[in-house]
Write a structure and sequence with these properties.
- By secondary structure, the chain is mainly alpha-helical.
- It has helices at 22-45, 51-63, 68-75, 79-91, 113-135, 139-157; strands at 66-67, 95-100, 103-111.
- It has a three-stranded antiparallel β-sheet with strand order 1-3-2.
- A hairpin with a 2-residue loop joins strand 2 (95-100) and strand 3.
- Helix 1 packs across helix 5 and helix 2 packs across helix 4 (79-91).
- The longest helix has 24 residues, at 22-45.
- 13% of the residues are buried.
């Protein structure tokens, strides 16, 4: 018969919870971020824009005019897929095409004022959806979530 030996670790704070190992925490964070991101995308793009159209439009809003190739590279899609996205955005009057002044054989895509307006509306809708979820949390949970947001922003900037 073998005996089992337990090691008892003293706890200085009885309310303290042991931190998850980094790989377990990474899985939990990745899952939570992906689900939240997916939900945010679905909440506001809806009938006006597909998620792919929104991200392409957001890139143009952030980066300024881009060639189709540059936009496809930023979005990690093939050129024909980006052409379809830009064609749809052009029909909605959210982007315009112009000849690239640096190379007349290329076309640059530029976000229009209507495109900037729809980006602002989608962001506002997403913020409102998230704010509704945060509003029902306890003050302590909001404080923890705020701290987590700052930590995650810091991690992403490194």
């Amino acid at each position: 018969m073998t005996s089992t030996h337990q090691t008892i670790v003293p706890v200085t704070d009885p309310g303290a919870v042991a931190a998850d190992p980094p790989d377990t925490l990474a899985i939990d964070l990745r899952t939570a971020i992906m689900r939240t991101s997916r939900r945010l995308r679905l909440e506001a793009t809806g009938e006006v824009l597909t998620p792919g159209q929104y991200t392409a439009l957001a890139q143009l809003n952030h980066e300024g005019p881009l060639t189709l190739r540059a936009l496809a590279d930023l979005e990690h899609v093939q050129a024909p897929s980006m052409t379809r996205i830009v064609n749809a955005l052009t029909e909605l009057h959210f982007v315009s095409r112009e000849t690239n002044p640096a190379d007349g054989r290329q076309v640059r895509v530029t976000i229009t004022d209507a495109g900037k307006t729809v980006i602002a509306e989608v962001r506002s809708q997403r913020t409102a959806w998230l704010a509704q979820r945060v509003a029902v949390l306890s003050g302590e949970d909001r404080r923890i979530l705020g701290q987590a947001a700052r930590i995650m922003q810091e991690m992403a900037s490194k």
